[in-house]
Amino acid sequence: MNSIASIAALTAALLNVPAPAFAQPASPNIVVILMDNLGYGELGAYGGGILRGAPTPRIDELAAEGVRFTNFNVEPQCTPSRSALMTGRFPIRSGTYKVVGGGAPDGLTQWEVTLAELLSDRGYATGIWGKWHLGSNEDRFPTHQGFDEWYGIPRTYDEAMWSAADDTDNEQPAIGRNQGWDESLAPAQYIYEARKGEPARKVARLDLVTRRTLDAQVATRAVDFIQRNAKAGKPFFAYVPFSLVHMPTLPNPEFAGKTGNGSWADALAEMDHRSGQILDAIKAAGIEDNTLVVFASDNGGEATYPWQGANGPWRGSYFTAMEASLRAPFILRWPGKISGGRVTNDVVHIVDLYTTLAHVGGAQVPQDRPIDGVDQLDFFTGKQEKSSREGFPAYVADRLTAVKWRNWKLHFIWQENMYDPPQVLPVAKGINLLTDLREEHDVLAQNTWIVRPMMKIVGDLKASLKQYPPIEAGTPDPYSPPK
Hints:
The chain has two domains: 342 residues, Alkaline Phosphatase, subunit A, CATH 3.40.720.10; 75 residues, no CATH class. The N terminus is likely disordered. By secondary structure, the protein is an alpha/beta fold. It is 26% helix and 17% strand.
């Protein structure tokens, strides 16, 4: 080190000045941290944390530094929520309205234009680490849908239980233990690594051992991506769909026993730590002010024993149109653009992220198809007081089950738990979500006026589906819409 550099380094150390940041690109970086089945009531910032056995200081700090949403809405299942995020379209349009079991055709057609494709066309580096769940064949993997690199699984973590390679956690009931499963019946699933333009390669078999260590790999690879692109001065879109706290909810061995409150609490502590690793990488690269961080969950909490999630004050479970299914944690941080400490109860839907993040990246959303997401950038940044969305239709699979508008909900089909049979109601139930968080009292008779604005939402969607027929689930590529 020459003398000038030595003096500069010493001066910086004495004044506690941070190391010079990498040259920041004109376009802002976008980091989306998506948790899997993280219920509304799990985080400290949402009334959970220590009540669930583990504080969540890193995510709570993120909420304090940005804006926290109490009426952010998702789709009732994993695949539909991820489809909505990637396309800005209600999944009923894309044939991705439900989770599909192994062996059936699944995923987004290549005709869909993903958020990664939009941002890639604007010069962004794009990466995903974790569950894709939007296509389990090679030609529908993320690296064929706009991502430069991917590490993760095509479908779901349930499949880690097929082989029951690790059943040592005595808190959990026996998981599978090879009760009739072998690879000739249902092939084992794998963790993949892929880069755009190259075939994906299998890295490891997905089982309970690799499931436990997957989020450590996700965090390490996402951090490396952030560092590489920050150093190169290239704008990036980092999509980090962690596996936690999806069932089987198992912590990394490094976290097992850490809280003393069981494996679920240990997994919650790990989830907070992994989020902190991503945030630390952004800070260490000196790009915090030029990076929009999105923290969200794709669904409400788990409904299956012994991994049930906590959904705060809301009733029901995911795979329904109850608030426990639709409302999820959602936090945004963008220093200098978003004021810290703000909380809002205005309606936002996960499809809005597509349109808004495209705007952030300077991209134009497709004009040849209906896009359901609305641009919320002015609302998110505080330039606009109210959300640009008042409501949305709530589908459970291909069933129009309810509609939300402002602080009201109209149920057409009643189903409280994913394991309950859906019941078509002879007369819709009207719920005031401000006075009846548990959705116990039908007040439609006193408030029939709400039917008009709510049915307009339904009518507009039905007219759009007639004009632009939805893609059938399982439609193969190539797909072209009917003229």
